[in-house]
């Protein structure tokens, strides 16, 4: 089939048949092929459903082994009950069942393979054979693991003494049963009920006979089935399943079964492939007798597209997420047909559905009357009139009057015919009997869609003229990116990047234009020292004013904010607080996972330690020293911040802000919470927002450099402690080589290089000018550098004092080793997504101290004391300081 961008605008009937030599006219024989050829489709596709089944199988295997390991009494009782029940079966029946199943379990797959080969379906047989071979390998590996490395409880659940030899054990997994199950699953016997029923009967008979005769256990049978099933779907996902998309011949045959006589069919491409790939393939079909048709074909492969995105939305959003992640073709057909009929019954202009049909077991077809026209995205700006905008809102009003939610009111779903009539298409993801939440989301989505084309003012005005101010105002809480379509969010992100780039260019241009007079002042500085300094400072103030003015002029509001302002002009009392639409945030999920992993590693270090004797023998003088070092760290943190702020900021209040940061970092990742709090504090202290961000950024940048230099320096010293030469340690060399490799990778990959260059350019646009301001005041720079060094020294000494509180002379480590361990743990804590680096820092510090020679019995309580003093105990004073500064309008 040939492709085209969209339907011809002036197409009202079939094309002229006389001008086409391959076009059949009325009364001629039906054609078997549609016009042209479709693009070549991949021979195999990787189905997300196969991956989900693979993950489910792996999870089931893990759960089964966990039950076998920790519920030994339950497994033993279950085996006894089954053995007692099966022991009453007649011996003759057992022998017949065993003989028949052992023969049939090999004959049935072979017979099915012969039947498939006769029907020229050898690819499926090849997939099944590959899955069977892999399953056999997995069974051998599992048998070896159970025999040599598995816990005794798992071994007892999966094996028992062999009836033929009491000194031998039965196989944990059956070497032939799992491959047969993998073969059966991979070749697709589930779609052939008769073959499936026969094979399952054979498998059940074989399992029953082996249970009765004592050659297996119930858990072994279940594990065998799970391994075969999991390996089969893993194989199918890895090599891909045969592509079953219907061809052009199938489409024309399906049209004839519902009474149409097609002449030509052309593939239509429209919309964003990343979002519209699961909406079906669309065709423009001309007939021998009658107007043309729009045909939508949906197959299993398209159903799978976007699966993970829908599954994530269903997991994280509250009750209004996308349609079901796993939806059958029959369900998709029925939903789209129902929405098409319901929309027309509501009085909306929608494509008229005139026929539906299945195209074999793997595809369905929906036939619509041809609508013609162009999408809103393809219309030029001058053709989008106010009347057209109001017509679009009238269609949405008709749907909402019957509580029908469209759920995808983007530009390519709004069609405009030659007469200017608006037609709403793409109703497949809609919903009938929709709640108020979905209806308001439709309004907010259409406001953004129209605002992207005609601006916020016209979009809101057209909505107010049709829906009224109350209805439009009620949608403001839904006006947030997460409630919009995927393509709309991508467009808003692109526009945000363009706005940021324009603001950055404006700042750089203002900075360049304010510098030409500087050489003359520098000349004055040579003659008269005092006037020169004043002139330089005047220049700096003038440059800052120019940058601030340029930033104010270049600053643009995003579209969502513009829409809110337009609505609030009509309804000032309208609710503007965004509704809570997320069930769980990605950051929260990542924090929970990372925290669980860190807690697991930490607990593994603590399980064999008796804390009673350790605490009773602690040196409380060193504990008091650790407390003092922890308290001094807040003074050092205030110095490190103020050293990069040329403006005058109260020192005591800055120390209080650092104490408040100990509360903030326990509810947010350490790097994020501290930066946000310090930026807010500086803004409240009178520093301009842009300069506040630049000051905190300069402090962070300089701190990162100091951190890396100190880590390398102390690492070097640690490596030379045990050798008389000054050669660096292998760890330092390995770290440097790793950094070099990362730099080469970043510079060689275009995407990564562009990402780094963009971030570095923004850094130089704000942070570097701020650093130049600081350099004009050496005392400030000394304060900042001294504060950073003092901050690191306080934490290192606190950790060292904690170690000395639980150790003695024989278990001490050098201060350089303690510094390396702290710097590495602090770096990981800043990178970890958990609040305050909980879990990651404890595990890293404990493992690091053990690695440098500290006993586990000393390292674990020392780390716990250090984290107690630097993270947990300061939470209450931090909360008090946070509330105090908030009341004083300092935060």
What does this structure look like?
A hairpin with a 4-residue loop joins strand 7 (353-358) and strand 8. The two termini are 64 Å apart. The protein is flat, with a radius of gyration of 36 Å. It has 34 helices and 11 strands. A 6-stranded mixed beta sheet has the order 1-4-5-6-8-7, with helices on both faces. Strands 9-10-11 form a 3-stranded antiparallel beta sheet, covered by helices on one side. A two-stranded antiparallel ribbon has the order 2-3. With 891 residues, it is mainly α. Helix 19 runs antiparallel to helix 20 (529-554) and helix 24 (620-642) crosses helix 25 (651-664). It comes from Streptomyces pimonensis. The chain crosses the membrane at residues 54-72, 92-114, 197-215, 221-239, 589-608, 620-643, 697-719, 731-752, 781-801, 813-832, 838-855, 862-882. It is found in: Cell membrane. This is Flippase-like domain-containing protein. Its main location: membrane.
Give the tags.
mainly alpha, flat, disordered N terminus
Helix content: 55-70%
Fraction of residues in β-strands: 5-15%
Separation of the first and last Cα atoms: 64 Å
Principal-axes shape call: flat
* Helix count from the secondary structure assignment: 34
Number of strands: 11
Widest β-sheet, arrangement of strands = 1-4-5-6-8-7
Judged by helices, strands and strand pairing, the structural class is mainly alpha
Name the average pLDDT.
75
Q: Low-confidence parts, pLDDT < 50 over ≥5 residues?
A: 1-37, 271-277, 517-531, 722-729
> Major sheet: size, sense and barrel closure?
6 strands, mixed
What integer value in Å does the Rg equal? 36 Å
């Amino acid at each position: 089939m040939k492709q085209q961008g969209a339907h011809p605008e002036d197409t009202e009937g079939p094309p002229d048949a006389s001008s086409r030599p391959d076009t059949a006219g009325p009364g001629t024989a039906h054609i078997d092929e549609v016009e042209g050829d479709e693009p070549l489709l991949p021979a195999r596709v990787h189905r997300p459903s196969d991956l989900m089944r693979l993950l489910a199988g792996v999870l089931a295997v893990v759960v089964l082994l966990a039950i076998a390991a920790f519920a030994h009494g339950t497994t033993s009782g279950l085996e006894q009950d089954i053995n007692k029940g099966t022991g009453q079966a007649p011996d003759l029946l057992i022998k017949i069942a065993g003989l028949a199943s052992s023969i049939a379990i090999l004959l049935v797959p072979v017979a099915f393979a012969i039947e498939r080969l006769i029907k020229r379906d050898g690819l499926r047989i090849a997939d099944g054979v590959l899955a069977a071979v892999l399953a056999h390998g997995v069974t051998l590996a599992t048998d070896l693991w159970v025999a040599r490395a598995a816990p005794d409880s798992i071994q007892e659940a999966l094996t028992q003494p062999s009836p033929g030899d009491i000194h031998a054990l039965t196989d944990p997994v059956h070497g032939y049963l799992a491959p047969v199950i993998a073969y059966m699953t991979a070749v697709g016997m589930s779609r052939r009920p008769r073959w499936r029923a026969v094979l399952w009967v054979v498998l059940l008979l074989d399992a029953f006979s082996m249970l009765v005769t004592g050659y297996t256990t119930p858990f072994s049978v279940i594990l065998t089935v799970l391994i075969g099933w999991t390996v089969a779907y893993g194989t199918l996902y890895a090599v891909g399943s045969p592509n079953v998309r219907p061809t052009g011949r199938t489409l024309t045959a399906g049209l004839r079964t519902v009474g149409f006589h097609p002449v030509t069919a052309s593939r239509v491409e429209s919309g964003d492939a990343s979002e519209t790939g699961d909406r079906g393939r669309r065709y423009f079909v001309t007939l021998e007798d009658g107007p043309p048709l729009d045909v939508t074909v949906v197959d299993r492969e398209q159903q799978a597209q976007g699966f993970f995105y829908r599954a994530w939305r269903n997991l994280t959003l509250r009750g209004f997420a996308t349609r079901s992640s796993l939806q059958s073709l029959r369900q998709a057909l029925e939903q789209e047909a129902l929405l098409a009929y319901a929309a027309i019954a509501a009085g909306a202009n929608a494509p008229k559905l005139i026929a539906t049909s299945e195209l074999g077991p793997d595809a369905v077809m929906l036939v619509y009357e041809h609508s013609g026209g162009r999408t809103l995205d393809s219309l030029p700006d001058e053709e989008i009139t106010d009347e057209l905008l109001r017509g679009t809102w009238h269609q949405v009003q008709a749907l909402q009057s019957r509580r029908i939610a469209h759920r995808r009111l983007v530009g390519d779903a709004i069609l405009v015919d030659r007469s200017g009539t608006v037609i709403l298409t793409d109703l497949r993801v809609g919903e009938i009997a929709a709640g108020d939440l979905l209806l308001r989301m439709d309004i907010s989505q259409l406001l953004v869609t129209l605002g992207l084309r005609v601006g916020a003012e016209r979009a809101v005005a057209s909505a107010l003229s049709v829906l009224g101010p109350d209805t439009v105002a009620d949608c403001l809480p839904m006006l947030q990116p997460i409630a919009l379509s995927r393509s709309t969010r991508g467009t808003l992100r692109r526009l945000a990047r363009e706005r940021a780039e324009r603001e950055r260019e404006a700042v750089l241009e203002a900075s360049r234009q304010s510098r030409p007079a500087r050489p003359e002042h520098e000349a004055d500085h040579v003659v008269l020292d005092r006037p020169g300094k004043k002139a330089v400072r005047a220049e700096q103030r003038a440059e800052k004013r120019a940058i601030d003015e340029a930033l104010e002029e270049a600053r643009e509001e995003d579209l969502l904010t513009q829409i809110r302002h337009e609505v609030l002009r009509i309804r000032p009392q309208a609710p503007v607080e965004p509704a809570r639409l997320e069930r769980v945030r990605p950051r929260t999920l990542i924090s929970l996972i990372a925290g669980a992993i860190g807690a697991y590693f930490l607990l593994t270090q603590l399980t064999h330690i008796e804390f009673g004797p350790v605490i009773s023998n602690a040196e409380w003088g060193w504990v008091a020293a650790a407390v003092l070092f922890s308290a001094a760290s807040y003074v050092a943190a205030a110095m490190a911040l103020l050293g990069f702020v040329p403006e005058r900021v109260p020192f005591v209040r800055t120390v209080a802000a650092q104490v408040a940061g100990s509360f903030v970092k326990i509810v947010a990742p350490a790097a994020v919470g501290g930066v946000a709090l310090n930026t807010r504090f500086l803004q409240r202290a009178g520093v301009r927002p842009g300069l506040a961000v630049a000051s905190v950024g300069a402090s962070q940048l300089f701190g990162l450099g100091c951190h890396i230099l100190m880590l390398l320096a102390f690492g070097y010293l640690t490596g030379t402690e045990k050798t008389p030469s000054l050669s660096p340690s292998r760890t330092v060399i390995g770290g440097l080589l790793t950094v070099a490799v990362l730099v080469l990778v970043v510079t060689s990959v275009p995407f990564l290089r562009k990402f780094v260059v963009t971030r570095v350019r923004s850094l130089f646009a704000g942070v570097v000018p701020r650093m130049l301001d600081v350099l004009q005041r050496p005392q400030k720079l000394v304060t900042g550098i001294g504060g950073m060094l003092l901050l690191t020294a306080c934490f290192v000494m606190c950790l060292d004092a904690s170690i000395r509180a639980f150790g003695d002379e024989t278990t001490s480590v050098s201060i350089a080793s303690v510094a390396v361990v702290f710097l590495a743990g602090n770096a990981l804590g800043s990178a970890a997504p958990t609040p305050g680096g909980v879990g990651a820092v404890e595990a890293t510090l404990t493992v690091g101290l053990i690695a440098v020679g500290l006993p586990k019995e000393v390292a674990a309580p020392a780390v716990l004391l250090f984290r107690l003093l630097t993270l947990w105990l300061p939470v209450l004073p931090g909360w008090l300081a946070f509330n105090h500064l908030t009341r004083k309008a300092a935060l």
